[in-house]
Specification:
Layout lengths: L3 H24 L9 E2 L2 E4 L2 E4 L3 E2 L6 E3 L6 E4 L3 E5 L5 E4 L5 E2 L5 E2 L5 E6 L34 E2 L17 E4 L4 E6 L4 E8 L1 E3 L7 E4 L2 E3 L8 E2 L3 E4 L1 E3 L5 H36 L1
Antiparallel strand pairs: 1-4, 2-3, 5-21, 6-20, 7-8, 7-11, 7-16, 9-10, 11-12, 11-15, 13-14, 14-15, 16-19, 17-18
Helix pairs in contact: 1-2
């Protein structure tokens, strides 16, 4: 016979973890780039246990950004960012801007990765094309999904005339992620870079190592080509579903109340049994 006291304690622990996870989700309903946590449960001999947390891969709604360099992914995909130490991170948060050197970076200063394009829009291989280890390996020099290395996206502005690369009046990010330079009142369009988007077989299994920043895991698999489209001047809001999480939070609260009552009842029964034995 299973110990009802141990069973109640284990169930209460699982319910508390669920409650905390839902509270974090609801606290980040309006946080751009936040991916909702999802907890699953399984039965075991002395109560309930929780599985490892996963992130919901459902897309969040778009909200206006602060500048045209803010990017939003509509569909499947993650931006690729390179930290100063060379390691890669993947994120849905496109809070990007150009720094003083003309490089596209996020708020932490990490460089957004892309592919260098030729004048006809083809990807230029900027390095060796030998097989590489996984993209989150600190020694990995690529970042893309195939054999072609990624590079930083730089639109240097000439201080003498204020133009991008000294000859483009402005830039535009197309829906396919192509960054083009515009000149002659928009009549001249030159492909410059393509934003590197990746996806994963099970994106919910990505490991969050920093806020809104992920690396692949055995559960997620290695990077594949992203299929989403890019929208300029927008950001992705959290993908937390408020009504769903509030409903689950009420269930978790009820579960905590029930287990607390069970624990109290078992404690009283134990005390009464000891009193009768004495």
């Amino acid at each position: 016979m299973n110990d009802p006291f141990i069973m109640a304690l284990n169930t209460q622990k699982a319910a508390m973890g669920w409650f905390e996870q839902l509270s974090e989700n609801l606290g980040n309903v309006y946080t751009p780039g936040y991916r909702a946590k999802r907890m699953t449960f399984s039965d075991f001999i002395n109560g309930v246990q929780t599985s490892e947390l996963e992130r919901k891969d459902k897309q969040g709604k778009s909200i206006p950004g602060r500048m045209p360099s803010n990017l939003f992914i509509e569909g499947k995909g993650y931006f690729t960012l390179r930290k100063p130490d060379g390691t890669l991170r993947f994120s849905r948060l496109g809070d990007f801007k150009f720094n003083g050197e003309g490089t596209l970076i996020n708020e932490q200063g990490w460089k957004v990765q892309g592919y260098l394009l030729g004048e006809n829009g083809n990807v230029i291989n900027t390095g060796a094309s030998n097989p590489s280890p996984s993209a989150h390996n600190p020694n990995h020099a690529k970042g893309g999904t195939g054999q072609v290395p990624t590079t930083e996206i730089n639109l240097w502005v000439d201080p003498t005339n204020g133009k991008f690369f000294g000859k483009y009046d402005e830039y535009k990010v197309r829906s396919d992620g192509t960054v083009v330079g515009l000149a002659n009142e928009g009549k001249s369009v030159t492909p410059l870079y393509k934003v590197a988007l990746v996806n994963f077989v099970n994106a919910g299994g990505l490991k969050e190592v920093e806020d809104y920043m992920f690396v692949p895991s055995e559960v997620s698999g290695e990077p594949l080509a992203g299929t989403g489209e890019i929208r300029s001047g927008l950001l992705e809001k959290s993908n937390v579903h408020m009504r769903e999480n509030v409903s689950y939070l009420q269930q978790a609260k009820l579960q905590l109340d029930v287990t607390a009552k069970l624990i109290s009842t078992n404690k009283n029964l134990l005390e009464e049994s000891l009193r009768l034995i004495q």
